[in-house]
Amino acid sequence: MRGIDVERNRKFILLFLALWIFAPGLQSEKNTLSAQYKKWLDEEVVYIISPMEKEVFLKLKTDRERDLFIDAFWKQRDPTPSTPANEFKTEHYRRINYANHFLGRETPIPGWKTDRGRMYIILGEPNDIQRFESKSETYPAEIWFYQGKTDVGLPPGFNLVFFQEGGNGEYKLYSPVKDGPQALLTNSFGPSMDYLKAYQQLQEAEPSLAAASLSLIPGEESGGMGRPSLASDLLIQRIETLPVKQIKDKYAQKFLLYKDVVEVEYSANYIDNDSLVKVFKDASGIYFVHYAIEPQRLSVNQYGKKYYTTFKLNGTISNEEGKTIYQFEKTVSVEFDEEQMTTISHQPFEIYDLFPLIPGNYKFSVLVKNEVSKEFTSLERNLLIPGEEAPLQLGSLVLGYKVKKIEGTERKLKPFQVGEYQIYSQPNRVFLKGDTLAVVFQIYGLNETLKQEGEIKFVFTREGTEFRSLSKKVAEYNNLPDFLEEFSLADFPPAHYNLQVSLIASGKEVISQGDEFDVTFQQAMPRPWIYSKVMPATGDPSFDYLLGIQYFNSGKMDEARGRLEKACQKKPDSPEFALSLAQIYLRQADYQRVESLLAPFFNQAQPAKYELYFIMGKAHQNSGEFDKAIEVFDNAVSLYGVNVNLLNAIGECYFRLGNKEGALAAWEKSLEISPDQPQIKKSVEALKEKK
To answer: Where are the alpha helices (DSSP H) in 295-395?
Structure first.
């Protein structure tokens, strides 16, 4: 029965692959490929490309994108990416050429398409080949022996058997379950022949071929005397899926996602990363998104005895409608001397950062580019920032390998700082037996009853079974809503653990949060070298400004106005703050406030920014003060030159004043700069008709 199940599973897998390959959408996209890309996809990489990579490739629209993807495909497989040569690619094409020259001679189909060609392309040269030819008792057959592939999860030694079914044509890959020893005999009288009898007959004719007919793994017990080994067919399946399992195809998704964003020289150079994103509420009431990103490798340049690189971080936060409500760009420059570089080369490198965010549901992405190596990586997360009306909530857990208490009342703001605790956490959440596990979290909305009578319960499970638990009263924690609990891992056996933290009231669970971590067998583990900028305390006006901009981009004008007014009160000499607030006043038709807010910037020795002139002019224009508006716009022209927006506004003001000649002159000049303005064209034509 087990043999039947294996065959049924094999057929199911083949059916699934067929459905996937010939899915209508993908097939139609495949048909649009030119011959060279069809050949690359269907012949050159057919055995090593993953379903994800294939799906992405078929979604690409231009040959330029396909060429860049192919570069990325090979770079992900390059064992020495820092050198010009790609040994994997060179060896792969050598195998294809060998298969085409030597492994397809018995059949009209090309060698790469034969069973021997497929296995040769996947595994390479066998360590030994036994050939069984010109035998009256057996059909022509070969045993390929491989060893030394335990690093890719294969047995220390194993065989592959190929035979000419019926004595001619292609050498077919032998399956102990599907074919059995009788398929190798010339006088077996078909598949109905008894396995044991066939094995005994083959044993007399070719003992080594008989042994391989029951098990492809030397020394492995067969499923029963004269019965084939199921492990052999599983081995064949593992070999055929080996190329896909060896590659992390996440890069293909990233290529598709960022191909229109990153520069060409970066697009094929995606590197993986570990990342961590957590949300905490500051004592000021502002929610901050804390994130850590750990690139797979740190590539640097050397100049003399100095090692350096520069990262560019581009972050985007968009709401559920896909509208961008906040963007940031940051530069991270790092430099090491020789001693530091020696240390860093054995440590992971992490970038810590944070930013404030208004309540809502968001998609958060960060693109990180290494400007020295032209590599890029990224992280993407969904975020939920609770509103003021949010009910009782237990925030996300942070599992740290170290926690430090911050002294002083006027504390600067740092990533992964929660209240008076600075947490050092690594995205992979792997700990040593000698570590102390720090668990940090927040609970928002605790009422007095819960503060006095509530209980926090920590439950550790391993393989689905409770390993340890701890319960403490909420009243035992002194820094609410911040919670810190530390656990020695000295008696935690190396394993994978789940941690569940719950708030208990009257014996019932009210809310809970979970996370997972590993305790490793290793005796020591390098902790990351962390780059982290210190930010000002949350009373700084820059945070009000950033939140105001986010509210503005979300269309929440009243909230934006409140935040930006706070920012301007704290820093009245900031033209950026004033400009953002003035835009809100303008949108809300509060024109007098625009004038009073911006007027001080026009009384300084240095000219005001162009944007300030434009907003001030629009405020006068919208309030019907067309002469004042023209004066402001003219000053902007004299300082910054003409542009379409200024000319159109000037033309509108002249038109409102009844000065049709002035309006016509401004609008005609605007059309010279940008002819594609249907409404302005219509206005010009109407004025000319009235002349």
So the answer is: 338-344
